[in-house]
Structure to design on (91 residues):
C-alpha cells in the first residue's frame, strides 16, 4: 500500500489523468497556486470542442471552490462516449 505524505497548503497539487480510448495516458501534476494563475489568465481549458457536454468554465469554477474549502480527493471523473476517461484529483 502506498504511503501518503502530508503536504502543506502551498504544496497541494491538482492532478489530471487522461486515459484515451486509443491507449494514450496523460498524467499532469500542477501546484494549486499555479493552477489559480492559469485560470485567472484563461490559460487552462480541459475541453475545446463544441460537442463536449461539460462547460469547462463551470468545472474550473468548481475546482477553484474546492481549493478555497481545502478539499481533497477526486473532484471529477468524466467518461466520454469515445471511451476517454478524465479524472481530476486534488492532493
Amino acid at each position: 500500500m502506498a504511503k501518503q505524505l502530508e503536504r502543506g497548503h502551498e504544496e497541494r497539487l491538482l492532478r489530471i489523468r487522461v486515459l484515451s480510448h486509443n491507449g494514450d495516458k496523460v498524467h499532469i501534476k500542477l501546484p494549486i497556486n499555479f493552477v489559480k494563475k492559469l485560470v485567472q489568465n484563461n490559460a487552462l481549458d480541459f475541453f475545446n470542442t463544441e460537442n463536449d457536454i461539460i462547460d469547462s468554465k463551470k468545472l474550473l469554477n468548481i475546482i477553484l471552490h474546492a481549493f478555497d474549502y481545502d478539499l481533497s480527493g477526486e473532484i471529477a471523473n468524466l467518461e466520454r462516449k469515445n471511451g476517454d476517461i478524465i479524472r481530476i484529483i486534488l492532493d
Q: What stands out?
A: The beta strands are 13-19, 25-31, 73-79, 85-90. Helices lie at 32-40, 56-68. The chain has a mean pLDDT of 81.
